[in-house]
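lol ok so funny story. i was supposed to be doing the assay writeup but got distracted and ended up predicting the structure for this chain instead. priorities right. anyway since i did it might as well share w the group, maybe its usefull for someone
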Amino acid sequence: MNAEIVESFAQMVREKSIDKDVLAGIIEEIFGIMVKKKYGNDANFSVVVNMDKGDIEIFLEREIVDTVMNPATEISIDEVNAKGNEDELEVGEVYPERLELLSFGRRLINLARQSLNQKIRELEKDIVFNEYNDMVGEIVVGDIYQVRKNDILINHNKNELLLPRNEQIPREKYRKGETLRAIVKEVKKTPNGPVVIISRGDNLFLRRLFEIEIPEIYDGVIDIKGIAREPGERAKVAVESQDNRIDAVGACVGMKGVRIHAIVRELSNENIDVISFSDDPELYIQRALAPAKLKSIVVDTKTKKCTVVADSDQISMIVGRNGINIRLAMKLTGYEIEVLREEKPYEEYEEDIELIDIKEELGADVYEILINHRYDTALEVLKAGPEKLKEIEDFDDDKIAEIIDIIKGQFEEEE
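and the output, tada:
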């Protein structure tokens, strides 16, 4: 029975990569508890586990006495002689008696088995926790084996990894059996074992992909100075070269964009802007807002605020669709950016617009009022300005501002 027990746990050593000495220590602890349950807490004993030979030896050590007062710690000389006193031990010496597992009874043996299995399960959980805790921030590759409503379960080296919804790339489709790459973001201890959380939406995942696809970054020749990202939409990555002979942006993009395209494909066609980092906040902000052209930049380094002025036709490019471009620029640079529109002087407009041509945009009532007050073209309205338009009783300040905005918008569309 000893050999069977040791062999069963030796198999665990091979399958679960559990350290033999650690497992032997657990076995010694469990069988020690079994001895105490039978002989009491005062009992002196030793448990010897030999994993290589497949043997467990349990010795109960009791003092030899004439009259036994405590059976847990004492044994009579007569009983020792009856067992065969080969070493000719005498009263006052210690008698080490080898105990057979069967002598403990089936109940205690089953209890020991249960305790051992529980200890092994706890040890397995610790091994998984420590393994993945050491991998936090690194990329893992696994197979999708379950797609649930709010999360995805990944099989990695026979361990279950969790990709929650908030760590996924929005609108990315996941199918069972597909291979997936992600970074290990966090490992949590729970009553049911460790939970390994992975991420594809974290900035660090993008950084690791750059390190994989761009050797200069992996080698430290090019540094990533900052990342701003809205997963699945767009990202901005600031890079800096430590070697004047190497163009950081060009190295990241690669010949015909081959390097950056590999990263874009991995991120489900997320747009990536690679810009050159600068210690000069003004230049850095200008690059972060590229390709928009700015008229001027005023930077306050103390308050971390910045005001940029640009022509009307550049505003939409600066802001980006749903404001994403300016949001990412602010995340990347750490500056709050305010955008001011520089109005184009009226004399610079090459062609005037007849009000009849924008009657629908202005509204029939507004059009009729302006015509009745002898305003026939858009430029005539703009040149009149708010002060003159206030003379029209039908218009208040809000209505005048709305009319001017509509007309200016028509000129911008014409351009």
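Residues 105-133 form the longest helix (29 residues). The mean pLDDT is 86.
back to the writeup now i swear
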